[in-house]
Design goal:
Order of helices and strands: HHHHH
Structural class: mainly alpha
Radius of gyration: 16 Å
Number of helices: 5
Strand content: under 5%
Distance between the termini: 24 Å
Shape: flat
Oligomer: single chain
Amino acid sequence: MVYVYSFACLIGGLTIINAAFSYQSKHIDLAFWSMFKFQLITLPLFLTANMLIGYGVKLGYKALGNLTYVLSTSKGLEIFISIAMGFLFMKEIPSWKTWVGLCIVLVGFVIAKYK
């Protein structure tokens, strides 16, 4: 069950962060004050996201006992979420090269897990 909690925390935190940055890149002007205002408004979101990611890593380490694998899985999950955010916010359609790259990352996780 700790796996599920860890995975849920990581998905939640990484989705919040990637959604905020995707929204920023699409809708927030490059002017200093508009960017500053957006960053101030999103401080509670980033606090929540960082807490979720922290708990996700901590619970993942508790479940697996291998921090390298937990952090690598977190980065792979972030890549997948980044692809999804690119599709949702920027209407970017992932090419076959993107999916091949993601598969290579997944194969790397499997190789890292088996010693």
